[in-house]
Amino acid sequence: MTAGRGREKAAVEGRRATAISRGLLPAATALASLLGLCLLWNLVAGISPSRAFPPPIDVWRVLVKEAASGDLAYHLAMTLSRVAAAYVVAMLVGSVIGVLLGVHRRADSFFNPWLVLFLNLPALVVIVLAYIWFGLTEAAAISAVAINKIPNVVVTMREGARALDPRYAEMAKVYRLSLLDRIRHILMPQLQPYFAAASRSGIALIWKIVLVVELLGRSNGVGFQIYLHFQIFDVAAILAYSLAFVAIMLLIELLLVQPFERHATRWRRRPA
């Protein structure tokens, strides 16, 4: 009995160690890939030293200097606040419109040309018009970013509404569920995967547009800093701010977006 329990315990520990190693492998691979990129960057910068292509150590020095002065944290916070505000507006408005169009086919047919128009409208045009019509204000900046993203959310959520299973709606009628219960227990679980997909693509698009908005009409934020250092051809500072913001967005992707996506799709059956 003791020997059997020992073998069983060893097998469990072996499986646990294997699972841990499998979990660490992607992280180790990603780290090795980034280190390889830094080495290649340093090699290319060393072959032909130039202010236009600084080595990683120069970028790191600028990053440390800006962080120590507090400027990096301030401008990152301003940009992230705009990303968050535009994201919330785009997801709320786009989700409501998308579900309504998915449920009401006649409205979808009527408004579909509008949707196609806004999907193909360049982001730069929307930003410039927003600043001309509403002035160089925070509301104009956030609205311009949200308007650029709303059509994409509408398309994704419309497909989710079209894919709703009518049997669940019939069951809700049989059990006389309230509107709130129908939304909570019938509608939201089916739409969660589509909301997660729109959310993931939304953040990836929004933060890039926010930088353009800041570059054109804001006096703070990462985009403004990129424009400011572009004026004096300080590539090291441009890369420092850009890489710092990209790192923050990657953390948001790994710690918030991906876990939410896994949670949203957990009920789906895996293919055999």
UniProtKB/TrEMBL annotation:
One of its GO terms (cellular component) is plasma membrane. Keywords: Cell membrane, Membrane, Transmembrane, Transmembrane helix, Transport. It is found in: Cell membrane. The keyword Cell membrane applies. It comes from the Bacteria. Residues 76-256 form the ABC transmembrane type-1 domain. InterPro entries: MetI-like, MetI-like_sf. GO terms for biological process: transmembrane transport. The chain crosses the membrane at residues 24-44, 84-103, 115-134, 236-260. It is a multi-pass membrane protein. The keyword Metal-binding does not apply. CDD domains: TM_PBP2. PANTHER family: ALIPHATIC SULFONATES TRANSPORT PERMEASE PROTEIN SSUC-RELATED, ALKANE SULFONATE ABC TRANSPORTER-RELATED, MEMBRANE SUBUNIT. Belongs to the binding-protein-dependent transport system permease family. This is NitT/TauT family transport system permease protein. It comes from Rhizobium mongolense subsp. loessense. The lineage of its organism: Bacteria, Pseudomonadati, Pseudomonadota, Alphaproteobacteria, Hyphomicrobiales.
